[in-house]
Amino acid sequence: MDRFDAMQAFARVVETGSFTRAADALHISRTTATQLVQQLEARLRVSLLHRTTRKVGLTPAGSIYYERVVQLLADLDRAEADLPQALGTPAGRLRVDVPGPLASMVLVPALPAFFERYPGIELHMGAGDRMADLLDESIDCVVRGGPVTDQSLIARHVGDLQMSVYAAPSYLARKGMPAHPGQLAGPEHSLVGFLWEYRNLPQPYALRRGNECIPVRGHYALALNDGNAYLAAGLAGLGVVLLPDYMARQAVSEDRLQRLFEGWHVDPMPIHVAFHRTRHSNARLRAFIDWVVELMASLR
């Protein structure tokens, strides 16, 4: 039995709650994962896990051992990951997941400078607005807008996106230009909602001017859970949209979107880089986070 492989299998079973999901994350068979944990229990002469047909849980001995194993594996990962930096530059593979519009409009265009700075990093980037499972999918970190509600994640605030309300000229030609945010509540106007996955409902927002605060309530003609599709809906004139300014900048310059309610503002959207508590940050991850902070500052 390789003790490292066995401890890694045990930790993944605990974190995913399943031998099958742990095996998938480690790219081994379920039988191998089961055997590794059984061999570990035999060596330690204790039961580490309660096994039922529905779930896997820790025994008291398993809980104590898991805390030690997580720290040991993290220390080993950190030692291996930090060695390249100690010798000069971070290196190795980094798996990240980011929102689609932020990837296509901000991160990917800036990657040449990233790779020039960190030529030893191999970046695997997933792009989309779904909430990826970091452990099941072996992802090092995610970049997300809005609150990070998963208590198993460590989240670093890396910047804020300035937000504004927009509509397409075709929409305004049909519906007319609203002069005040309160008019959006009327039957003559329609909104496009964004479905945040952690609630799966369009989230309300408010427009502020001095001491005035107007909640934006109205009829949702359409609600979407993808940022690129949401932008496309606004461009198609399907309703009023709330967008980060960076997403709307080109369309505004081409007269395909128009900003509404001059003098009013929406609270900025916080952006976080989040990673699992059991995956301590390494040199590659720290380099990526620092780079994202620089890019977010450039969007102001």
Automatic annotation (TrEMBL):
Q: Which Gene3D superfamilies match?
A: 3.40.190.290, Winged helix-like DNA-binding domain superfamily/Winged helix DNA-binding domain
Instruction: Note the CDD domains from the entry.
Output: PBP2_CrgA_like_3
Zinc recorded as keyword: no
The record's section on InterPro entries has:
LysR-type_TF_proteobact-type (IPR058163), LysR_HTH_N (IPR000847), LysR_subst-bd (IPR005119), WH-like_DNA-bd_sf (IPR036388), WH_DNA-bd_sf (IPR036390)
Q: Which GO terms describe its biological process?
A: DNA-templated transcription
Per UniProt, the keywords (alphabetical) are:
DNA-binding, Transcription, Transcription regulation
Where is the HTH lysR-type domain positioned along the sequence? Answer: 1-59
- List, alphabetically, the PROSITE patterns matched: HTH_LYSR
Identify its protein family: Belongs to the LysR transcriptional regulatory family.
Q: What is this protein called?
A: LysR family transcriptional regulator
**Record organism:** Microvirgula aerodenitrificans
